Amino acid sequence: MQQNGINQTWLENQSAWIADYCEGRKSFIYGLMPQTAVNLPITQTISILKNRLGEEVFQNTIDPNIVNYHRPPNPQSAIRESAIANLVGINVRTIQSFWNVVKYALTIPASQSAIHLLPIWEPGVVSSLYGMASWNINPEFFSQELYEAYPHLDTVERQLKACVNLLHAMGKTVGMDVIPHTDRYSEIVLANPHLFEWLLRKGVEIIDHSNDLHEKVQVAILDFLKKNGSNGVNYPIAAADFFSENFGEANRILALFGTKSDYHGRSERRAALMDFLFRQGYEPAPATMAPPYRGLRVDDRPEACTIDDQGRDWRDYAIIHPTPESRVFGPLTRFKFYENKNDNADWEVDFEQPRREVWHYFTEKYAEVAREYGFDFMRGDMSHVQMRAEGTPAQPDEFYDPLGAVKRRIQQDNPRFYYFAESFLAPANSLAYGDEVDHLEAAGADTTLGDLQSMVVGSPAFLQNFRLYLDIKDIRRVTPCFTMMTGDKDDPRFDKFYSGGNEARFFIGLFLPDMPSYMGLGFECRDLHIAPAPNEHYTKLYVFKIGTGPKATYGPYQWGKNEALFSNLLRIREFAEDFLPNIENCTTQWLLPPDATGHKKVIAWTLVEQPELVFVANLDIDNEVKNVKIPNPAMGQTGCQLLFSTKEKMGDILIFNEMNLHLEGLEAGECRVYQCHD
Q1: How many CB atoms lie within 10 A of CB 327?
Q2: Residue 660 pLDDT
């Protein structure tokens, strides 16, 4: 395909390319750019899916009574049920509905076999996806066009079930976020104050943060019900009974907030109850990140106070004795998984006293979600949290880590369910106490994100960390990802990470068969931003909804129009279509591993099972390299024929001189695949 005029080329060839997909010759629709895909008319999308999947399969997928529907496996579309998968992360808000996720998936080949959905629940303050306000699915992800075509898909929950079914039938696994915190005044918190930690603030002073402060909050909530009514629900007047399992969370939510279908009514009641508690000084303790985690104080600086339109003075919090990475997340509160020592006088957690009812609630809720919608894996948010000052204990027990506990609970229902951790493999004692890899192993994480997305390709930091990740992969129980871009790094501050080397990122992410990769939505056509673009061009700024200030957005997400990048990645995807199935279960053998000193920028590898294949990449994105020698003492062949180049080179041959393979040169950022022969 030409690098320019992709839209015109699509118009000229779409019938043939759609036919290739429908008739199974390709696992994705060739040449279909994401922005074109999400705007396909529903009639055309349905026709494509019916032709690809078959009428019966399609009808089964859109039946919300059938959960976790799988198309019978075949080599073209079998779901890859392994943690070593190439993932695509999708912030549904950027494409507006679950139905549009299905449309976008038409552009994703079998080489990228897993889809991670960023949080899908009703959001709270600033509409942050990570500040979940309830266990209800976010109504903004409802598709009106899908409802009009299939009126039985009349709720966002039914549409989510149908869309996960469709993604399964299209050959994708689907993952959810598991979040160990909520919005500070979420329905979850207000209906279950005993599951969270509370404080009582007056002005700039925390006057109470004792262990059982939630009991006073419970009494206050009942006072609110007496004054404001209970939506017609008869409820016990004693706090111990109202907040008991016998009365139940569902009844409490109905009494406090009203029916699930009345979204605006529930929001108004939640705001009223929040105001009622806030004016008495009751606040859920905000979530924190990085050692020492504990020890909160009110930030008394004038700029740390916000007066809202109701006259409420919201104060930021800070850590009393911070370390460089310490941070307080004011809008969020973490589940109280353990008791505190000495009535919390010193903000010290007693890890020997897990609060079992909290663990049970947390793990069962996520198990219900996984079962209800058929999710195949989880991405554990803030997986790097390890609060024990001594580091990972010698004998971690079942209450060591809540995210690991969720994985184990869901595996009782689905043994193949796996855990993808949000951890950045930071130095010890920076984001967590102790070593992050030790912690991830103890928590049962299968794979982890890492932080290559935060480094310029070919930089010393990139090369050193890439090498570190390979060492972790080879000797530890958790496998780091080769990460191209994430939603939180698609931000004006990080444009420098993507100014070059994107083809190399993508190539390496696909052609290391024993290392997972992660690509955030929009990477494949992301514009080159020499100067920051308007906020609407960055997916990070759609994790929340802010109407004013530097992070505000004023309309829908704007897809990149980088046809050159899309075309280059499309060539890689097309080559991978037929090539990758032959190496899917192979083991990498490094010939030129990433240089731990950060100086040498050419990498090369082969496969244990197929040593005739040689992969090579120049991670210098600014300069050509000449006269490259690739050590391969086991090579018995005399020459290697070029199969693929990201720069469209043809016919170049590697020569084996009985010591190594000789390569005349590689262009800046160029990647190649060779097949050697006698």
Answers
A1: 13
A2: 86
Question: Rounded CA gap, 663 and 653, in Å?
Answer: 8
Residue 479 CB contacts under 8 Å (≥ 6 apart), including other chains: 83, 84, 446, 447, 448, 472, 473, 514, 515, 516
DSSP code at position 335: B
How far is Cα 69 from Cα 63, in angstroms, rounded to an integer? 9
Cβ neighbours of residue 287 closer than 8 Å, sequence gap 6 or more? 181, 328, 329, 332, 333, 334
Task: Return the closest-CA partner of residue 156 out of 72, 263, 294.
Answer: 263
How far is 114 from 480, CA to CA, in rounded Å?
16
Q: Residue 82: which pLDDT band, with cuts at 50, 70 and 90?
A: low
The answer, as to whether pTM is greater than 0.90, is yes
- Between the two ends of the chain, the Cα-to-Cα distance in Å is 34
Closest residue by Cα to residue 131 from 307, 313, 345, 284: 284
For residue range 319-341, list pLDDT tens digits in order.
999 999 999 999 999 999 999 99
DSSP conformational letter for 171:
T
| CA angle (427 as vertex; 331, 465 as ends), nearest 5 | 110
Mapped onto helix, strand or coil, the DSSP state of residue 195 is helix
> What is the β-pairing status of strands 173-178 and 114-117?
parallel
Q: What is the pLDDT of residues 605-614, one digit of tens each?
A: 999 999 999 9
Q: What's the mean pLDDT in 421-425?
A: 97
Domains and CATH numbers, the chain: 6-175+450-582 (no CATH), 183-336 (no CATH), 588-677 (2.60.40.1180)
